[in-house]
Design a protein that fits this description.
The complex is a heterodimer of chains A (247) and B (123). Chain A has 247 residues and is α/β, with parallel strands linked by helices. Chain A has 8 helices and 7 strands; from the N terminus they run βαβαβαβαβαβααβα. Chain A has a 7-stranded mixed sheet, with helices on both faces. Chain A is globular. With 123 residues, chain B is mainly α. Classes of the chains: A alpha/beta (247), B mainly alpha (123). The interface between A and B is medium-sized, with 20 and 14 residues.
Chain lengths: 247, 123
């Protein structure tokens, strides 16, 4: 990957309205996905893409009925593989920006313009919605807050980014990162790893305050039992990404 | 010839023949058989050529020569397991790419069937 050229690429063409893709990775979200897609379609002119990560329920049908473009993965790839599929789609359909939000109602649809604005203005390559910036009213469990604190320390110590919410899955990226991520995107907790990738690329990342809620439907993909495993795995993958070659 | 040596000759010769037979019947791909063939050959040779084994074991400071055979065996097993982990990782990566490609192709086919090659905003 040509790190040097990265900054020079300006994503948004002058004059044309930007092509924006809202991406929702979804696994067994049949109860919340329809409503979410409808509220996105009702509010924004953006394309709405649901990546159905091998769900066995009606996630795909409900998303289609609500008017989303749906990519059905034939088997469960996990969050990173699903989101990467969306980057491949956005790359092929020449989108200028991708906004990724959760399919379970955790993220506030109304905050989408906040994460897009710095990208469309050309000020940032990535904008991450943080639940800890400003008065966002987030309340999380103690293990979760501990995990977030750990990753925050990891990111802040190894990259130059001042990060408050390193595991936030509410973010937007521009065309340059769409192209890079379509080739290289991490698997578990991809958001933490993504900071190292952005750091290596010299990407400009910033956080904006957003609202996040406790999950409306379904269970978080991260149970407390697996949290320790993920922390070790993500730390390893994070540190390896510091010394890895991307070609 | 002591019994452990006899046993290791039989075992490594049997293993060698079994692997060759599996490759011949195309149940085992050649690239995965190489380490197995190499490993069983080394153990077989060291089992037959007692003086070689004794010499190497002595040079390595091992008092009981057949235990050097175990060491060689364990090292080969480790190598083969690492080889498998790498092979699985590669398959994992290929599987991911294929799943992603399938999802994108299915979507492309659906869009073509609906008469639009490019996504449009129907609002």
């Amino acid at each position: 990957m040509q790190f040097v050229q990265f900054r020079g690429m300006n994503p948004v063409m002058e004059g044309n309205p930007p092509r924006i893709l809202v991406v929702i990775p979804a696994y067994q979200e049949e109860r919340s996905i329809g409503e979410l897609v409808r509220s996105l379609r009702g509010r924004y002119p953006h394309d709405v893409l649901v990546v159905n990560d091998g769900s066995t329920d009606r996630t795909s049908e409900n998303a289609r009925e609500a008017g989303a473009i749906v990519l059905d993965l034939p088997c469960n790839l996990g969050i990173g593989g699903a989101v990467q599929t969306a980057f491949l789609f956005a790359r092929d359909h020449r989108h200028d920006a991708v906004v990724r939000i959760d399919g379970d109602g955790q993220h506030e649809v109304e905050d989408i313009p906040k994460v897009l604005e710095p990208i469309l203005a050309g000020r940032a390559d990535a904008v991450i919605g943080s639940r800890f910036l400003g008065e966002t009213g987030y309340r999380g469990s103690i293990p979760r807050i501990f995990g977030i604190g750990f990753f925050r320390l990891l990111v802040n110590l190894t990259t130059g980014y001042r990060v408050t919410d390193p595991t936030s899955g509410f973010f937007a990226v521009n065309r340059s990162l769409i192209e890079f991520y379509s080739h290289h995107y991490p698997s578990d907790y991809p958001e933490v790893d993504a900071y190292i990738l952005m750091h290596r690329l010299g990407a400009r990342a910033e956080e904006v305050p957003v609202r996040m809620y406790s999950r409306a439907e379904g269970k978080s993909s991260i149970t407390t039992f697996r949290a320790v495993y993920y922390m070790v795995k993500v730390t390893l993958s994070f540190l390896i990404n510091r010394i890895r070659r991307f070609g | 010839m002591n019994r452990v040596t006899l046993f290791s000759i039989c075992a490594s010769a049997g293993l060698l023949l079994y692997i060759l037979e599996m490759v011949r019947r195309r149940k085992l791909r050649e690239e995965y058989s190489i380490l197995w063939l190499f490993g069983s050959t080394v153990i077989l040779v060291l089992s037959v050529k007692q003086d070689w084994l004794d010499g190497i074991a002595h040079a390595a400071g091992i008092v009981y020569p057949p235990s050097f055979l175990f060491l060689v065996g364990i090292l080969f097993i480790l190598l083969i397991l690492i080889h498998f982990s790498i092979a699985i990782s590669k398959l994992h990566q290929m599987n991911k790419k294929m799943a992603q490609e399938m999802a994108l192709m299915k979507n492309g086919a659906e869009m073509n069937a609906a008469g639009r090659g490019e996504i449009t905003k129907e609002r």
